[in-house]
Each structure stands twice: as structure tokens, then as C-alpha cells.
Design goal:
alpha+beta, SH3 type barrels, 79 residues, globular, 5 strands, five-stranded antiparallel beta sheet, 16% helix
Length: 79
Amino acid sequence: MTLDQLLPRRQAEIVAIDWTVLAPDEAKRLRALGIDEGAQVAIAHRGVFGGRDPIALSIGRMTLALRRAHAMAMTVREL
């Protein structure tokens, strides 16, 4: 399943990211924040506006906002 399909507060591991759908500067920023294969993440909550954007993603002790389009590029395995 992709990260945007993960239910809130469920832990998952990122198993693959399709970096080709992301702009190079966006991919670099996400990697700098620790978003890469093997990272354990959880959806803290979702936005309320059309398309449920943005997604609040918990990774370690950090919470960051992630666009749904970026989350769709990430394949996760629920833990």
C-alpha cells in the first residue's frame, strides 16, 4: 500500500520510494528529513481541505507536513 492509504496512528516502514515522480530538490529535502527506505513512520492526522492535504507524518520524534502526492510515491508495510 502507499503511504497516503495508511490509517492514522498506524506504524509502518517505508519499503520503496518512487523518486522519479518527485522533483530533485523535493527528493533531496525529504531525504535530509530522514524519509527514505527503512524509515518507520505514522500518519499523525490529515488535512481537512479537498483531497485531505496535507498529511502530518510522524517520523521519530519529528512531525512534518507532507503533500499527498509525495505520500502516494511511497510504498509502506504496516508494522
